[in-house]
Amino acid sequence: MNRRHTVGVILAGVVSASGALAGEDYVEWKREGYAIPRPLAGLEGDAVRGRALVVDRAKGNCLACHRMPIPEEEFQGTVGPPLYGVASRLNEGELRLRVVDEKQINPATVMPGYYRDPKTLNRVADDWWGRTILSAQEVEDVVAYLKTLDAPGVPQQRPAAGVDLQSGPVSGSAFLSEVTRQMQEDDFANPGMTTVEYGRGLFHKQGEEGTRCVDCHGEEGEGLDREAIARYPRWNAELERPITLQEQINICWEERMDNFPYVYDCRELVGLETYVRYLARGQTIAVQTDGPVRPFYEEGERLYRQRFGQLDMSCYHCHDQHRGAWLRGQLLNQGQSNGFPVYRLGTSRITSLHRRFSECLGSFRAEPFLPGSDEYINLELYVTARGNGLKIETPAIRD
After folding, report:
1. What pTM does this model have?
2. 40-146 CATH choice from 2.60.120.460, 1.10.760.10, 3.40.50.410, 1.20.120.790
């Protein structure tokens, strides 16, 4: 049988997935200095409509990153600067350029270009391909509203992270409420334990030839090398590439037990992965990053920093550049993987790391890669190595 085993089929977002429009054709615009002095397509903006757009999570959703004088909106982000008095600092043309494409001024910005040329974007999902985030009219409406913000004010205060996010890796558990943390640590209360028990059942299940995982690894997995589990993804000399824990489980399932291989990220493999990593809880993550694995690690880092989708964002923007900031009601953490597979309260299900990658790319309005693809395996290698020194917490609980 095939040894590859890669067959498989909050941001949450600056702009929500239902909000792209741009029914009309894209209209070329001209920058002059640090401004677009003339309205897009000669249109006139409306400040009332603009205010609604900056609030609407399905349109501009400016409050995801900025604090603005809109007191009825409780959760306002701190990723970008507060916009109190912005019209006293920038003229109309300067405001327009920043809404249309802030990267013209600051190439490192996380802010999407709301009227950027769609042909310049990378791996945009089919539903959003060839489209701008806002229409030309909506851009002018937002600019009209921003022009009214000429008075200084006191921005909404948001609590600090309370954790040092700069000196080393920090588990996402540090950001949990005390109630959620207690739920995670209590095996009777942790909803992820349902998947652990499901995986344990598969660990005892007879394969097509009558063999079971427990025949080699013991009734409670006592024969498993816990330290080795904490080193995945790890180099496989025969395949000449790093493999994930799911792949190693599938190799055993297929070649040592003579079963038909599972599809990557299927319910059974995620269950077995969750159970095996649960047995290694408390082990220190120690993923190799040198030697033959190095090129794959560097490719994972490139993907981590690569911008994707209509929103033109990367993993790096949330989990490095703006970690510790508020994105609406979400405090951005380091994006560590030591708790995966995790039980997500927001979706009420166990979530593998590759599924989470796809969810994030989807929030960028990007086309995800396949679970088990070279791209996701390399990204898993890099992301997991970022957490070297952390303890395995599977099944962790996350929002």
Report:
1. 0.91
2. 1.10.760.10
